[in-house]
Amino acid sequence: xxxxxxxxxxxxxxxxxxxxxxxxxAGNEVFVQDADENxxxxxxxxxxxxxFDESTAKSVSVVITMLPNSKIVETVLLGGDGKSGWAxxxxxxxxxxxxxxxxxxxxxxLAQLLKNMGLQYLDAPVSGGxxxxxxGKLAILVGGDSDLLERERGLLSTxxxxxxxxxxxxxxxxxxxxxNYVSAAGLxxxxxxxxxxxxxxxxxxxxxxxxxxxxxxxxxxxxxVKQFMLSxxxxxxxxxxxxxxxxxxxxxxxxxxxxxMQMGASCVELWNKAAAVSxxxxxxxxxxxxxxxxx
Length: 295
Fold this sequence. Notes:
Strand order of the largest sheet: 3-2-1-4-5-6
Shape: globular
Radius of gyration: 20 Å
Number of helices: 13
Mean pLDDT: 96
Distance between the termini: 50 Å
Order of helices and strands: EHEHEEHEHEEHEHEHHHHHHH
């Protein structure tokens, strides 16, 4: 894509807002849309750009979606009838980049539907959380045509520093779900170790130091325990229910490919129980508090 492009951005949530801001800061003209009218107004006031609507949709060359799940992505792009969504309002050969955490099989089907409409598609979910979205240092896992990725690499580089081509359409979303499974399983193992240590008389902060200087070191022990769990701020910016959604995507993927997740089955069950006693605002680091009690 050109150095200064016209980009539609749909979804200005905790991750989407700073990601769209990075795209705008790089000199691109950004056209934004969100279910919350106030988020649209705030973005335009703070970062410029325009509203993504029927009068501007034809002018964009790329549309990025950053939405909660596959169902919402499909509804937004295709409409309830499969024909009247935003995709039908785009110019032919425009590119749709779904950066949401979507279901791999549905992403693969969406790619074909958009191709039938004369549009191009990449799935490009991200990893790194709100802090890295703000700094533009996300990891971006891309599924789809490699040549198309190279054409859009400049745009993706405004939001991330590690841009990995994973495979065909849907592969990015599969990799994202599996990555979050590993992250969620490691978080539970870390939290359980801390709770056991505490009951034995070892301070959680001391046990965290043990993990960080030993083979038990992980992203959770290094970047979440003291910062968000022991401080009781629980402010990592990634919701517990969203992590649970990704785990269920990973579990469904294992069933689809015929691989039995043994530890994964227990992990998903535990997170599902935690999600049932949480709210959409509950941060995933609150697993430290939740697992201090019996679910």
